[in-house]
Structure formats: structure tokens, C-alpha cells
Amino acid sequence: MSNYLSKQQYTVNKFSLELYPYLAAPENRFEANCAMQYGADFKMSFSRGGSPKEKIGLLQLIFPQTKIFQDTVIGGWNVDKRTPTAQTLNLALCLYGEDGNIIGGHSTFYKGQEMRSIAEDKCLLIDTPREINANFANGVFTGVTNTKFANYVVELGSKTGRIYNQGVLWGYSVTQNAKDAGKFDYNIIAPQEVRIAETNEHLSAIARFLGTERLTVKELVA
To answer: In terms of pTM, does the model score above 0.70?
Structure first.
């Protein structure tokens, strides 16, 4: 049986999200060292009209419950990328993925596709996050699974780049079914508009990643 749940699609302003939820519950929740794996395969895209001259790409922030990279703050906002060794004030460093990165065979839906696309009129990213949680006590799941994402558009025309104020915030979590403890529910927080200029924790995450101050990042908001 597939661990994927039904495909979900959302549109908020010029952002579109294609989401395939993933949930692999333990076969025996009473077994020692049992664990649950959860996450998603998803594609986030942004399109704009007109005749733009500058390329755009997507920045992704993540609020995880497990450590992804060495500098990941668990239960806090992070740029979803390995911290650069040479920090400089350039928002291009924050863009999700790297050119030429390909999604591996673990993804049923995006295997072989490029992890990101950067262009003048449209940009996208593909992510396939998985987290493992082994917090079970006598068959009762006691773990915290609320994982959140925020996506913003970065325009790359200037030396530092600039980030569009308008983005999207969304996420998911897994909970044990209240009526049937042998089942687990995958809960989606549908994408909603978020403005980075009004969201200090997002500005701070980018500032920490780039080794600068929050107000400095705020000055780059378009």
C-alpha cells in the first residue's frame, strides 16, 4: 500500500502549490523503537505577467521538528538550505536548492525533475521532506509534528537581490486519531498570504543565515 495520500492543490495570489502528503505510520505502535515517518512531495511555483527583465527564484523557510542541517534550529524558522561558508549580503544565497540538482528515486511524482527553476516570468521549487518521529509510549504517540513552510520570491537583478513582501505560509502535522488509536491523521495548514516585512521571525531567519542584521534584510524587501 502506498504511503502517499490524495493529491492537494492550492492557489494564493500568484503562488501555486501541488502537494502529495506522505505518511508511513508504524505497523506496531507498541513495538520497541517504533517510529513514524511523515512529510510530503510538493511543487511550489510563482508566475508573474508583463515583460520582466530580471530573473526570479524561490526562497523557502522551514519550521521543522527534526534537525535537517548542522545549523538547523528545531522548532524555529530556518532558511531551508545549508548555511554558506562565506557569508555575504546576497539573497541569491538563500534560494532553495542549486542549479542542476535532480530529485531522486524516493519521490514517486518528481523523480528525475530539477529541484528548482529560475526565470524571468516563473520560478519553482520541488521538495520532498521526510521527518522521523519515534515518540511513542505504550502505543500512544507523544511527538510534535507541526512542520511549517514559508515561501518568498527573490528578484536577482541587483548586487544584493530583493525579496518580494508578499509570500505564502503553509504546513502540515500528524496526529493520532482520537477514536481509533491505530490510525493517524495527516492535517494540512492550507497556504495563506504572509508579508515578510511584518514577520520578524522570517526576517531574523534570513539574517542569521546571511550573518547580518534583521533590519538590514528588511531594507531589501520590495
So the answer is: yes
